[in-house]
């Protein structure tokens, strides 16, 4: 028998620019989302008190931009988790049911 450590060699951690790019993208889109939410609140207050139609239009644009930024943040976070191996890319398809078998399982077959 050999003595010593039984664990295998660990892979060296290496620099992956894709991870850095995803992290920067997530950060920037989250900051933009926060800015657009604050801008939408401000435009909404201006539109209510001063009754300006341009403020209502800017409110709508800021709200749509904030929704897009949050969506982009979630999509980039999903891609980051897949790149890190925290989630799988695709699920295996379920096997097809035989045409002759009854629907509903054992209880329905009685």
Fold and architecture overview:
- The protein has helices spanning 17-50, 53-83, 105-109.
- By secondary structure, it is mainly α.
- Helix 1 runs antiparallel to helix 2.
- It is flat, with a radius of gyration of 26 Å.
- The mean pLDDT is 86.
Topology overview:
Blueprint (H helix, E strand, L loop, with lengths): L16 H34 L2 H31 L21 H5 L1
Helix pairs in contact: 1-2
User: Helix count, per DSSP?
Assistant: 3
- Encode the helix/strand succession as letters: HHH
Structural class of the secondary elements?
mainly alpha
User: Which blocks of ≥5 consecutive residues have pLDDT under 50?
Assistant: none
Distance between the termini: 60 Å
Beta fraction: under 5%
Main pleated sheet? none
What is the helix content?
Answer: 55-70%
Instruction: State the shape.
Output: flat
User: Quick one: how many beta strands?
Assistant: 0
Mean pLDDT: 86
**Rg estimate, integer Å:** 26 Å
Could you name the key traits of this structure?
110 residues, mainly alpha, flat
Describe what is shown at a glance:
It is built from 3 helices and no strands. The chain has 110 residues and is mainly alpha-helical.
